[in-house]
Amino acid sequence: MNTSQQRNLIQKAGFGMLSVVALLTVLPIVLVVGYIFYQGLPAISFEFLTGLPREGMRAGGILPAIVGTIYLTIGTAIFSVPLGVAAAIYLSEYAQDNLLTRLIRLAIINLAGIPSVVYGLFGLGLFVLFLNFGTSLLAGSLTLSIMTLPVIISTAEEALRAVPQSFRVVSISLGATRWQTIRRIVLPESLPGIITGVILGLERAAGETAPILFTVAAFFLPRLPDSPFDASMALPYHLFVISTQVPGMPLKLQYGTALVLLCFVLGMNLLATTIRSRARAKRQW
């Protein structure tokens, strides 16, 4: 066997090992998702998706939990996305590379790794008790916003830095100001990466239980919230409650709730992928 044949054999073996590792990684995820669909589909009905819970949550629907999750996700986006993107723009385009900015970036990375229950306790102390918002959608959205900010800032900054420096140089040489360059050139070109960071942060917010446990979630509230200062049910906490705190809960209702939450997250992923693909198609590099 000559050297060329040995290299081809090693290459095929390497690709084979990578394929096996990829299969071992993806297969459990596919099996889990498939099992949730198999167990949860019998519970999905018009009443289940649009009705109010009754009989101690053993019957009826999960509409308040769905609406509460949507409200929390929207509230988190309202507070975290503008602030996170603005912070990323400052760090990427305006801040000097010195000790202070390096410490800020290090702090952002560390904040992204803090357990969510710590954010929940922080939100309880600051928003619920100190600012007297009570257990409300406002307190929950602000807590989730603080939790998602590090992810949004980090990914948005990386997306901004990935735009070629030559784009900025040409724009400024043609007479544009720095802000005009950022608004008309840098931001549109970095949009796919920014959207990825935003969706990652919002997905984490939509699926968290600990932060909303302390700030917004209600055990059993068979009505829709009327204002940002109302408590609300939410899918993650509702799933936790019916799985651990309600005896005699039908198994299909538990998996049905898990399936709705899974579809909510997958729908956000699909939306982000569509927007990101269209934005990448318009890229000039």
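Above is the first protein from milestone M3; the second protein from the same milestone is given next.
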Amino acid sequence: MRDFISEVIGEKTVVVGNSLGGYACLCVGAEYPDIVAGVVLLNSAGPFSEPEAIQAQI
């Protein structure tokens, strides 16, 4: 996504994702705030914590 935004769009953009795509958009927005103007999550899913933290809670 970062490469597509940088090479094709060429300016800051709002990324929109549904389900696992929402998680991908969230990651791109968090890691590359210089190219992402905003994030829209629709029915978002994904691992929002580290797997080790989940194991420690069990």
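Note on the second protein: Residues 20-31 form the longest helix (12 residues).
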